[in-house]
Fold this sequence. Notes:
This protein is mainly α. The protein is 77% helix and 2% strand.
Amino acid sequence: MIISPARSTSREAWTLVVGLGVVMSVLFGFTLNAFSIFTPAAGWLLDHVAPRPVMATGGLLAGLAYLAAAQSGDLDSFTLAMALCGLGVGASTYVPAFVLLSNWFPPSRQGLAFGILLAIVGAGGTFLPMGLNYMVEAMGLLAAMEKGAFIMLLICFPLLLWLVRMPDQLQVVSDGESSVTVDRGVCEVLRMPQYWLWTAMFVLVMFSGLSVLMSLVPYLISVGYSAAQGAAAYGAIAAATIVGSLSFGAISTRRGAGWTLGFGIFLCSLGVVCLLLASHQTFGLIAVVMFVLAWGTTFNLVNQLSPTLLVEFAGRRGFGSLLGIGNLVSGLGAALGPMLYGYMVDRTGSHFLPVALCAVLMAFALLPLAMLRRAQRQVPPAVALEGPGS
């Protein structure tokens, strides 16, 4: 028995997914992305305040701050404006969007909804920076930023005002689904081993994934590929990520978020192993293609499916704060990955050892995930409460 939106609102729910995807595409495409320290603050706000004022104010702040940065006359004012822009982006994108959608979709359909959202974001993140680069070449940085600010204000702020709200009615639906959610406070969840198993899995995947992503082109060049070939592989990953978000989101509706994420992590680790074979004289190119297919479609699944795992054992009452804290910890941990990778390359003179370590760490993330799923099956279920109103 699950709390889920009334079926009559399904069209509105999917419209919300697409609309939030457009907002996140524009804001991520024109900015430096949200600063990690602002993510828990946005999650905490969503636990205590209705989502519309939080997200709409964040979108408005991001656009106005971006405009202020475009008109700044010195580095200090530019830096301050971009910090405010990061605050606005953090209050209107990833964590708030996932908190909101978790109230519109039952756990069995969240993976697909999040997948569509991230596919739209991935498309925007691929093409909007290219457009911004063209604008910079044509009119200069500050003028391009000014145009980008107007786009953000004209698209994101109205969309957030129009779309963002909690569902009007929640009803208890018996549809054969076995997943249930519980209602616990933030402090209680932080004392649970499940939360730290979830966080450990998140950190290991992000640590490995970001290290591979940041070092992919230098690694391929070091084993004999041209810079153009390395860039082509990097670009193919963007397309593979979109395909993976949609396909694994659909799989999760049948197999559940936990099984789908575990299968994705397994494929992702195999993809890194394929990358180790990129220098093989006969099978090297095939290995790179297999890496793009296996790793590219799965390395971002942790962002897509882990929120559903969290809401299943923690409930919705403190979901925003808990998701924000987890993202902050994983972001800080992941930031150490490229530094450690570079240090190992400097010490050994080769990319082999750090790439192999990334494969091991990715595979090792299956352990806390398995322990989490085992512990979760032992938790007595309870029905979750509704989130804050619109």
